[in-house]
Every structure is written in C-alpha cells, then in structure tokens.
Amino acid sequence: MLRVGLGVDVHAFAPPEAGRRLILGGVDVPHERGLAGHSDADVLAHAVTDALLGAAGLEDIGHYFPDTDPRWKDADSIELLREVRRVVGEEWSVANVDAVLICERPKVRDYRDEMRRNLAGALGVEVGQVSVRGTTSERLGFTGRGEGIAAQAVCLISKV
Ligand SMILES: Nc1ccn([C@@H]2O[C@H](COP(=O)(O)O)[C@@H](O)[C@H]2O)c(=O)n1
Ligand SMILES: C[C@@]1(CO)OP(=O)(O)OP(=O)(O)OC[C@H]1O
C-alpha cells in the first residue's frame, strides 16, 4: 500500500535584535534575521514532519510537540523529525520526500544538499530520496515582502 502526505508550514522572521539563527533543514543559514518560533523554527523540517505524519494518517506536529511545552523550547527540529520517523514505525518505508522553501531571501540553493543530508539522516533514507529547492513568490504576499518563510513538502510512504 502507498500513502502520500502533504505538509505546510509558515514562520515569521524575528526582529534582528532577537538574535535568532536561521535554521532551515537543520542548516544554520547565514542571514540577518532568524525565524520566530517556540522551537528552532525550522520551517522546512516542520513541513516534512507534517507530510510524514499525514502520510501515516497520524496526528499533526503540534500534537506530538506542543508549543506550550518547555521541552520543545528551541528544540532541534531535525531531532523531532527523527522521533516522528520512529513513531511512524518500521512497517512503513519512506519512498521519497519533495520539499520547497518559499522566500525571496536567502537564496537556498547553496545549502540544499546539506538540508537534504540532514532530512535524509533523520528519516533513515538515502539522500537521493529527498529533494529540496527554493523559489521566490515574485515579491508577492508575505514571503515576497520578506516577512517570513513558507515551506511545503510531500512525502510518499509504502507498507513494507
Ligand atoms: N529562496 C530562493 C529562491 C530562489 N532560489 C533559486 O532561484 C531560482 C529562481 O527562483 P524564482 O522564484 O525566480 O523562479 C530557483 O529555481 C532557485 O534555484 C533559491 O535558491 N532560493
Ligand atoms: C515543533 C513546534 C514545537 O513548538 O515548533 P514551533 O516553533 O512552535 O513551530 P510551529 O510550526 O508553529 O509548530 C510546531 C510545533 O509543534
């Protein structure tokens, strides 16, 4: 049996004085502002996590890691993805993940391969099974105005 899941996440940029780092797919991307969030605000890891949970027909990321729980304050979202992969169980294998980051800046192309490695490591799959790319929204909307970053991901799983 095959199942597909879709994950979508959005995080606003924090003001520069907040001193947040910009973490995308587990990569510390050099940028003047990081994203606001209870965790490390890794919008890409969150979208992939929800895509996997959706594919497995489980609850959403906020169910497993509530943003009211101090345990997840500044949490490493790649580790949360690793935990969700464990929850999904070995009866499912991950066929592939495809994910998109939507922002004008930073350009993510130089960091894509490291993001893919981090996501693949957490999922226990080969790097070739994970794709990541960036796109702008042609300066339209909140991403176009540089107010935040959006991410979307799909994940295909199959019953072992
Ligand atoms: N945050 C981003 C946005 C874009 N890219 C790269 O630029 C290409 C063109 O983007 P358009 O939105 O103008 O189509 C895109 O295909 C990416 O290679 C990026 O790396 N990071
Ligand atoms: C992982 C969590 C934990 O608080 O991260 P947040 O930074 O709150 O990010 P969000 O995508 O709003 O919700 C997911 C949360 O479960």
TrEMBL record:
InterPro entries under this entry? MECDP_synthase, MECDP_synthase_CS, MECDP_synthase_sf
Q: Which domain of life is it from?
A: Bacteria
User: Keywords on this record?
Assistant: Isoprene biosynthesis, Lyase, Metal-binding
Q: Which pathway is recorded for this entry?
A: Isoprenoid biosynthesis; isopentenyl diphosphate biosynthesis via DXP pathway; isopentenyl diphosphate from 1-deoxy-D-xylulose 5-phosphate: step 4/6
Q: Which Pfam families match?
A: YgbB
Extract the PANTHER family matched here.
Answer: 2-C-METHYL-D-ERYTHRITOL 2,4-CYCLODIPHOSPHATE SYNTHASE, CHLOROPLASTIC
Family (UniProt): Belongs to the IspF family.
Name recorded for this polypeptide: 2-C-methyl-D-erythritol 2,4-cyclodiphosphate synthase
